[in-house]
């Protein structure tokens, strides 16, 4: 019996299917099934049975095992954190972030958190059972070049410049495009939002933007806001974290940090930068044509 097998069992029990657990763990369904089979063999009990409606239910033994397995998985995470601390390794901080937060806010926010808490953190991404809470409210707008004329025709006929979130139907940009019924032939995808704004500033199309992030470009007379039937519209950032039993100590501390005045200032006006020793310049290659 291993912690990985117990963790897999906990996920299947809580999510209700092998497929959902596989997607959460980012592994194949066969890997999840193998872990369950090993546990069933170890305990001599099915632990989880399929129901007639396609769902799953715990056996009496599985129901007793679930809370114990959850505690064992949590203790395993605590043990890992304790050993890392004893070796002087940075605390492990797992953050789930949208592309907008990762591009504009997260580096400065983590840097400020490290400085405020005195921690050294190693930030990474991990999928898992997530909980979210509202964190920061702003507005979604549409921008174009400061001196560009309003595009002819209705919004579905405009050239829309988006980052990868524009391809996600659940993201703010994706919902906006879907609401207007914009066809794929009118959408151009770029590596990040800053690139979309730069192209929009040249008059090559329009780009969704969060008002407080694009405001410096508007003040510099590089962009202007276009009013549309759907914008400006309210948008909200959420703090999304793993359930308590899967968190590291650094994650719990970081969860409280975004509510402080210092963090709010960073989210409202990001761009403080990072020390030269931690700067890793991205390299983008964009091929764009019409």
Characterization of the model:
With 290 residues, the chain is of the alpha/beta class. It folds into 2 domains: 3-86, Arc Repressor Mutant, subunit A, CATH 1.10.10; 92-275, 3-Layer(aba) Sandwich (D-Maltodextrin-Binding Protein, domain 2), CATH 3.40.190. 43% of the residues lie in helices and 19% in strands. It is built from 11 helices and 10 strands. It has helices at 3-15, 18-25, 29-43, 60-86, 99-104, 106-117, 172-180, 193-201, 211-219, 249-256, 261-268, and strands at residues 48-50, 56-58, 91-94, 121-124, 130-145, 160-162, 187-189, 207-210, 223-226, 233-242. Strands 5, 8, 9 and 10 form a 4-stranded antiparallel sheet that branches. A two-stranded antiparallel ribbon has the order 1-2. A two-stranded parallel ribbon has the order 3-4. A hairpin with a 5-residue loop joins β1 (48-50) and β2. α1 (3-15) crosses α2 (18-25), α1 crosses α4 (60-86) and α2 packs across α3. The longest helix is centred in the N-terminal third of the chain and has 27 residues, at 60-86.
Characterize this entry briefly:
This protein is α/β, with parallel strands linked by helices and 290 residues long.
Secondary structure: elements and pairs:
Elements: H1 3-15, H2 18-25, H3 29-43, E1 48-50, E2 56-58, H4 60-86, E3 91-94, H5 99-104, H6 106-117, E4 121-124, E5 130-145, E6 160-162, H7 172-180, E7 187-189, H8 193-201, E8 207-210, H9 211-219, E9 223-226, E10 233-242, H10 249-256, H11 261-268
Parallel strand pairs: 3-4, 6-7
Antiparallel strand pairs: 1-2, 5-8, 5-9, 5-10
């Amino acid at each position: 019996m291993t912690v990985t097998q117990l963790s897999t069992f906990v996920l299947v029990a809580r999510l209700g299917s092998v497929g959902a657990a596989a997607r959460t763990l980012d592994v194949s369904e066969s890997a999840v099934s193998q872990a369950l089979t090993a546990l069933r063999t170890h305990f001599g009990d099915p632990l989880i049975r399929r129901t007639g409606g396609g769902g799953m239910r715990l056996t009496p033994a599985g129901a007793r095992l679930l809370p114990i397995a959850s505690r064992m998985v949590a203790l395993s995470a605590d043990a890992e954190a304790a050993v890392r601390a004893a070796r002087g390794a940075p605390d492990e901080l797992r953050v789930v972030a949208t592309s907008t937060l990762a591009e504009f806010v997260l580096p400065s926010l983590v840097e400020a958190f490290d400085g405020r808490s005195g921690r050294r953190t190693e930030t990474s991404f991990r999928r898992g059972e997530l909980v979210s809470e509202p964190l920061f409210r702003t507005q979604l707008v549409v921008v174009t070049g400061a001196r560009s004329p309003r595009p002819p025709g209705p919004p579905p006929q405009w050239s829309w410049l988006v980052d990868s979130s524009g391809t996600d139907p659940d993201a703010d940009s994706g919902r906006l495009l879907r609401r207007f019924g914009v066809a794929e032939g009118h959408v151009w995808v770029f590596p990040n939002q800053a690139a979309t704004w730069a192209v929009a500033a040249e008059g090559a199309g329009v780009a969704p933007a969060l008002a407080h992030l694009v405001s410096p470009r508007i003040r510099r007379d590089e962009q202007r806001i276009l009013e549309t039937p759907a914008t400006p519209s309210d948008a909200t950032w959420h703090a999304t974290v793993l359930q308590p039993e899967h968190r590291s100590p650094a994650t719990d501390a970081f969860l409280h940090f975004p509510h402080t005045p210092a963090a709010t200032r960073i989210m409202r006006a990001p761009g403080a930068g990072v020390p030269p020793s931690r700067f890793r310049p991205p390299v983008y290659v964009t091929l764009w044509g019409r």
